[in-house]
Amino acid sequence: MLLDNTVKVLKLHPERKITLLSLGFKKKLDVKKPEDSKMIITMLAADTREYSIVRDSATAAVTSSPANIQLTTEGSAPTTPEWTLTAIGAIINPAISSGADRMEWNGTLDPGDVMVVSKDGAVSVNGRRSGNISGTVPEADAGKNTFVYSDDPGSSHNCTIDVMWNDAYYWVIFRKKF
């Protein structure tokens, strides 16, 4: 049902989506003066941004620490990527930073291990939940971005990093009198 309290996806643009937490509807009918009748639709969005329905990605091969990871977003608003690190050698305490934002996972990844850091900071290693990152998952600003990968000096520093994101756009709140 459209007006219940379940999460819904709204598309104002064919290639973008907005996640709504709730939707409200109120109407005022004026029988004597129909032109004064009103309908108000209230939308509570989970986020103030609209997201592309297509995911973009970038891959970086890391052989030293620190190492730069470049990505370019096409949207007009910041977006939070999902990070996948595949260890080629042993990786100890991997971290990714951008400006003041830094996320770090304390632990060791063995060769072949795959660690995924979701947008909310949840970590899984080889498909099993492995806690959360320390710090904040860095956002990618609109346009070109440089992130810095680092790990413990005792690491092999050999891994690949895949970054996936949905371009984000600011959306305009509109009012229309019906």
Using the coordinates shown, work out and report the CATH topology of the largest domain: Jelly Rolls
Order of helices and strands: EEEEEEEEEEEEEEEE
Compute the CA-based radius of gyration.
22 Å
Strand percent estimate: over 45%
Number of domains: 2
Largest sheet: 9 strands, antiparallel
Oligomeric state of the chains in view? single chain
Task: Give the end-to-end Cα distance, rounded to a whole number of Å.
Answer: 23 Å
Binned, the helix content reads: under 10%
SS class: mainly beta
Helix/strand layout:
Blueprint: E1 8-10, E2 16-28, E3 38-45, E4 49-62, E5 67-73, E6 82-87, E7 91-92, E8 95-98, E9 101-104, E10 108-109, E11 114-117, E12 122-125, E13 128-132, E14 134-135, E15 143-150, E16 159-170
Describe the structure.
By secondary structure, the protein is mainly β. It has two domains: 8-46, no CATH class; 55-169, Jelly Rolls (Sandwich). 0% of the residues lie in helices and 55% in strands. It has strands spanning 8-10, 16-28, 38-45, 49-62, 67-73, 82-87, 91-92, 95-98, 101-104, 108-109, 114-117, 122-125, 128-132, 134-135, 143-150, 159-170. The strands form three sheets. Strands 1, 2, 3, 4, 6, 11, 12, 13 and 16 form a nine-stranded antiparallel sheet that branches. A five-stranded antiparallel sheet has the order 5-15-8-9-14, with no helix packed on it. Strands 7-10 form a two-stranded antiparallel sheet. Strand 12 and strand 13 (128-132) form a beta hairpin.
